[in-house]
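Hypothesis: this fold can be encoded by more than one sequence.
Test: take the structure tokens below, design a sequence, compare later.
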């Protein structure tokens, strides 16, 4: 197995070198979940934790970075949403806090933010949902890419990782590419390393980790769930677009369907303008993720989860999860070489 481990290290050497860690496994940035405890635990276990800034203001992010640094001396990153109204200030907070890697997610990164990250000496990681955008991100200065398939939890694109990997990995060689979406076992990670990926990003497996501050009800929902229980949100009327979010089906998701239909009817009767109706639909889930993750309301809250949730069968420490993934990958490599 020593030779197999050496081969695994060779396969993801570009990823570990880029991230500055021993294991090229990034933690997915999950709002309310990816905070100091989980992020530091992933980094301390040899992986690469990523703080989910989400809707934090600059002062909150500054405190979170400092608290994480107090819990680990290993590298970690910060994920910023490009639509955040204080994006420039958040970038400055990351640079002042000596964060080495900044992830810009949720849209095409603005040129000003890209330049600020690069000029500040940090490495920029961007998401690429298609080959044409991957090439554009590289041209605009991204130092690495994440390609995330629709199997992932939370906000998703329309294309599976299986297809994205085939579309993008053979053509993007200039920067490291990390794969994400539906990953729950080491053999799967290995298959994408073989295709040219430099590492992987996992969220769902870590959301239910022992160090995750998610409510016990939230973790128990993961333990009970199968892959088919993690479905994207459904849009009732194309006039009122719904951003697809993958999560566990519960009473809240059923109420959302009825809420959309009722709101559409109020629009058609003239009670609401189109803009007001759209806002009514968008506001339905306001605070719903926090209700599930922090307060434990897994029936009415938003239980975001990827399809790999079916592979969450026990509460493990992050170190155990990473060790298990590596053991699976090295066993597959050893079997391949007949040892």
């Amino acid at each position: 197995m020593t030779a197999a481990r050496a081969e695994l290290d060779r396969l993801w050497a570009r990823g570990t070198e880029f991230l500055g860690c021993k294991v090229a496994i990034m933690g997915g940035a999950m709002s309310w979940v990816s905070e100091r405890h989980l992020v530091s635990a992933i980094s301390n276990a040899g992986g690469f934790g990523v703080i989910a800034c989400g809707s934090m203001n600059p002062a909150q992010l500054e405190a979170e970075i400092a608290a994480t640094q107090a819990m680990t001396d290993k590298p970690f990153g910060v994920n910023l949403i490009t639509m955040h109204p204080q994006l420039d200030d958040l970038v400055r907070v990351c640079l002042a806090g000596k964060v080495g890697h900044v992830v810009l997610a949720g849209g095409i990164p603005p040129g000003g933010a890209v330049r600020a990250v690069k000029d500040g000496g940090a490495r920029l990681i961007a998401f690429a949902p298609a080959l044409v955008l991957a090439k554009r991100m590289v041209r605009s200065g991204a130092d690495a890419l994440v390609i995330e398939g629709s199997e992932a939890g939370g906000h998703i694109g329309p294309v599976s990782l299986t297809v994205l990997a085939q579309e993008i990995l053979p053509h993007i060689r200039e920067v490291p590419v990390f794969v994400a979406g539906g990953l729950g076992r080491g053999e799967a990670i290995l298959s994408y390393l073989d295709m040219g990926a430099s590492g992987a990003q996992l969220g769902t497996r870590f959301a239910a980790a022992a160090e995750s501050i998610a409510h016990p009800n939230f973790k128990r929902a993961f333990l009970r769930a199968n892959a088919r229980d993690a479905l994207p949100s459904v849009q009732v009327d194309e006039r009122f677009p719904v951003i697809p979010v993958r999560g566990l089906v519960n009473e809240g998701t059923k109420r959302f369907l009825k809420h959309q239909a009722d709101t559409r009817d109020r629009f058609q009767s003239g009670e609401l303008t189109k803009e007001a109706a759209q806002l009514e639909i968008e506001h339905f889930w306001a605070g719903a993720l926090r209700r599930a993750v922090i307060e434990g309301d897994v029936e009415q809250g938003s239980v975001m989860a990827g399809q790999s949730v079916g592979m969450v069968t026990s509460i493990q420490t992050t170190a155990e999860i990473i060790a298990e993934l590596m053991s699976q990958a090295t066993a597959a490599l050893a079997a391949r070489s007949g040892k």
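The radius of gyration is 20 Å. The CA atoms of residues 332 and 338 lie 10 Å apart.
Hypothesis status: open.
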